[in-house]
Amino acid sequence: MPNLFLRGWNWCRRFRHRCGYGVHSPSDFFLITFVVYERLAFYAYSLLHAKRKDVAHLPHYREKTDRLLFRLVNYLQPAAMLEVGTGSGLSARYMAEARHVALCTLDEGKCHEEVVRLLSDCEQVDYRCGDEIGLLHRYIEEHACPDVVHIAFTPYYKEAFEALLPAVSSRTCFFIGSPYATKEKRKWWKQVVDDPRTGVTFDLYDVGLVFFDKKRIKEHRIVNFL
Questions:
Q1: Of the candidates 133, 199, 128, which has an alpha carbon nearest to the alpha carbon of residue 168?
Q2: In what order do the strands lie in the sheet with 173-177?
Q3: Which of 88, 144, 154, 168 meets the CB 3.0–4.6 Å disulfide criterion with 172?
Q4: Whole-prediction pTM value?
Q5: Residue 168, helix vs strand vs coil
Q6: Residue 56 phi, psi (nearest 5)
């Protein structure tokens, strides 16, 4: 119940940031109105909805947010994707259904059997478990930075961000999961937004988007996605 009150309060605070009002960049306006606020039911939504109950006890987003990740990946068309902090595996599955390219998802500790089953019929998903940051550094050594990076259900969000930052390109987009989850993470998210190494950023409350195209003027967009 407190979460509902908090969401209601933040919805009111963000009321004037809905539907792309005040956004003059054509590309940003398109992203907000035709990706973030898209209401059409995509082909995979029903399939993935049926799988949610099997992993509901593991960390996950609300369904609205997972569907947003699906649309973002479908829009960005990345050549490869990386996720740090697998959680329930739902977000990885949504992103994988949107774009059938290599997706590596890293998790701390032992692999969960439920997540293995959820991802088993997605051949492009590489689910790795163990020392999360160690796995991340090995991934960076073996691959170029992917176009989409989802920093998700992990306590090592700062370490993951700093490890990947030197390898980003103008095509890279970071999805920052739950930037308001804690006071510490909220403070860190503000630092990411203000960081001169980042470009245009979007704050959707449940997820933050960080782009790195330095040809664009650095701006921060708040979007009422609650």
A1: 199
A2: 125-130, 103-108, 81-84, 148-151, 173-177, 207-211, 201-203, 220-222
A3: 168
A4: 0.90
A5: coil
A6: -65, -20
Asked whether 66 and 150 are in contact (CB, 8 A), the reply is no
Q: Is residue 117 within 8 Å of residue 54, measured between CB atoms?
A: yes
Per-residue pLDDT tens for 30-77?
A: 999 999 999 888 989 999 999 999 999 999 999 999 999 999 999 999
Beta bridge partners of 127: 105
Residue 79 structure tokens: 């050549």
pLDDT digits (tens, 9 = 90+) for 120-166: 999 999 999 999 999 999 999 999 999 999 999 999 999 999 999 99
* Residue 138, φ and ψ in degrees, nearest 5: -65, -40
Query: For residue 114, what is the enclosing H or E element?
Result: helix 113-119
How, if at all, do strands 201-203 and 173-177 pair? unpaired
